[in-house]
Design goal:
The complex is a heterodimer of chains A (115) and B (453). By secondary structure, chain A is an alpha+beta fold. Chain A contains 4 helices and 3 strands. Chain A has a single domain (6-103), classed as Orthogonal Bundle (Arc Repressor Mutant, subunit A). Chain B folds into 3 domains: 19-89, no CATH class; 92-253, no CATH class; 284-450, Immunoglobulin-like. In chain B, strands 4, 5, 6, 8, 9 and 10 form a 6-stranded antiparallel beta sheet that branches. Classes of the chains: A alpha+beta (115), B alpha+beta (453).
């Protein structure tokens, strides 16, 4: 059985953080969100489309996002998501948690430091 | 197939999706255990996603068929996506909001349904009163009666309980429908999933309230009517939709017109509008037959051509207490002392409340007599005509009959005479063309069911 990569596992856990981050700047619809994450990561990664929509709907159910239907730049109506006040607070919480986690991982991987 | 959201106007450039995508959306829709409007919204969102995704993949050089397959592969299994989306929508927050919103809307619905039910019942009663002239007052008086007077007229009547129960059935129907609809929409559970919860919870609550908690004047009709309320609620919660009844306006107007004409023609001849009915019961034959039945209580003691005590009128219509006004024989005030002298020969003078039943002395005449099924009175109360409340020649006796299902009564006055035998000292005059003393049972259904007869 193939072991899931670190990237896959990390993406799964960080999808809400990534979604909230890109929505902090502008309102976007589902496909745009995936594209925006890919762009901002320099093409390094993008969330799985299959996990993106459940994450968006879960954040909306939680009150972190609001969605409404609007005409898109490409013409057809799309479901645009925007971050709410509660979403902003959740994003700050996720960012702090991620920063702490990332620092911990980096220290651990770097090994013991010589005082 | 997962139906697109029809509430949104589609854009002209929304091109048809490939068959594989339609198939994917159908499987996704089948897996979504969510209300129809949410499934439709997800369908629209995912259709838009596929259009964007396919266009992007095609721009990378793939042909439309391969692009569609690639777009599907990127989104993954429709079954898994449906399960994750369903789970994402079913949060505890939404569940609690759905429950609260459902209860709130059900309460509003119940209030509205109750008002509508009362209006329908009142209109029906008015019409019935007009047509038959035997129920309530003429509708003009009924409609313009003040609320306190109306409430006083209906208070204590089991029929009022039944009427309110019928209105409550409509209230329960509306409440269940609104509760299911609103809680399903907010909680994102399917109506099928929500219905069972509403039916069970609503039935249990209403059944307990109707049977054990709500005291009201009761008889068999009111009991059956009240018990129907939880069943109506459960049925309304469990059934899928209300069939629309559309009646052509012309036919409705014509029906109302015919009803009005019929009512007017009947109303001219209804007896209630033309004075009281003739006293057909006051015949010697009927009276003699009735007295023989009274003698089962005790043989009559007569003096100076009559009874020493006269029990006049009384009874509190619709109350759990019956009262009987008792007079010492006072047609001639000068005989009061003589009557007192006569009564002084008696010991253990008491009032006896007997269950009454209808007695058909002849096909055309109805009287009330002590129920032959009982050989003893339901209750007795001592009376002292010399030192008690009847010294002045008149008084009242009250019997609490609120916890017995019997509703028709006769009160006798008896005493132990000079020869040691018990005699009947009155002849209940209300039987001369009137009715018995009428009481009502007031309590919960459970108390009614477990009460003695």
């Amino acid at each position: 059985m193939r072991r899931p990569s670190i990237r896959t596992q990390l993406l799964k856990g960080t999808t809400p953080l990534l979604v909230l981050t890109v929505l902090r700047d502008s309102e976007l619809y589902g496909y745009e969100i995936a594209q925006r994450i890919r762009e901002r990561s320099g093409g390094a990664f993008a969330p799985s489309e299959g996990s993106l929509y459940p994450a968006l709907h879960a954040l909306e159910a939680e009150g972190a996002l609001q969605a409404d239907w609007r005409e898109s730049d490409k013409g057809p109506k799309r479901r645009y998501y925007r971050i709410t006040g509660k979403g902003g607070a959740l994003l700050a919480e996720h960012e702090a948690e991620w920063a702490s986690f990332a620092r911990g991982v980096a220290r651990t991987v770097a090994g013991p430091t010589n005082a | 197939m997962l139906e697109p959201d029809t509430n949104r106007s589609s854009s002209p450039d929304e091109t048809p999706l490939p068959a594989e995508i339609d198939e994917y959306l159908s499987r996704l829709g089948a897996g979504l255990d969510l209300p129809a409007h949410v499934r439709a919204e997800i369908a629209s969102e995912m259709a838009g996603h596929f259009r964007d995704s396919i266009a992007a993949i095609e721009s990378e050089g793939l042909d439309p068929e391969r692009a569609a397959r690639e777009a599907i592969a990127r989104l993954g299994s429709p079954t898994e996506l449906a399960a994750e989306l369903t789970s994402a929508h079913r949060t505890t927050r939404r569940l609690l909001s759905g429950a609260a919103g459902g209860v709130f809307q059900a309460t509003l619905g119940a209030a509205g349904g109750m008002l509508l039910g009362i209006a329908i019942v009142a209109a029906t009663l008015c019409e019935f009163a007009v047509v038959t002239g035997t129920l309530l007052k003429p509708p003009t008086e009924f409609l313009f009666a003040g609320l306190p007077a109306l409430r006083a007229a209906m208070a204590g009547l089991p029929m009022a309980t039944a009427l309110l129960a019928w209105a409550s059935c409509l209230a329960a129907f509306v409440a269940a429908r609104r509760g299911v609809a609103v809680s399903s929409r907010i909680s994102r559970r399917t109506p099928a999933a929500v219905r069972r919860v509403w039916a069970v919870a609503g039935f249990a609550t209403l059944f307990v309230a109707a049977v054990f908690l709500v005291p009201a004047p009761q008889n068999l009709v009111s009991v059956l009517s009240l018990v129907a309320v939880p069943f109506v609620f459960a049925a309304a919660a469990l059934t899928d939709s209300t069939p629309r009844v559309s009646l052509p306006r012309r036919k409705v107007i014509a029906a109302i017109g015919v009803l009005a004409i019929l009512s007017t023609s009947f109303a001219r001849n209804v007896p209630a509008w033309n004075g009281p009915l003739p006293d057909v019961a006051n015949t010697p034959q009927a009276h003699a037959a009735q007295l023989r039945e009274f003698d089962r209580v005790a043989p009559a003691w007569t003096y100076v051509g009559g009874h020493p005590v006269l029990a006049e009128g009384g009874g509190l219509w619709g109350s759990g207490v019956i009262t009987q006004t008792i007079n010492v024989w006072t047609f001639d005030p000068s005989t009061v002392d003589a009557t007192a002298q006569e009564l002084s020969q008696f010991k253990d003078i008491r009032f006896e409340a007997w269950r009454a039943v209808r007695f058909d002395a002849s096909p055309a005449i109805a009287e009330w007599i002590p129920d032959p099924a009982y050989s003893a009175p339901y209750a007795t109360a001592p009376a002292d005509f010399h030192a008690g409340q009847l010294d002045a020649g008149q008084g009242q006796v009250e019997f609490d009959v609120s916890h017995v299902r019997t509703t028709e009564w006769i009160v006798f006055v008896t005493g132990t005479g000079p020869d040691g035998r018990r005699y009947r000292l009155n002849e209940p005059e209300f039987n001369m063309g009137g009715g018995p003393l009428v009481s009502s049972f007031t309590g919960t259904i459970w108390q009614w069911l477990t009460a003695s007869t």
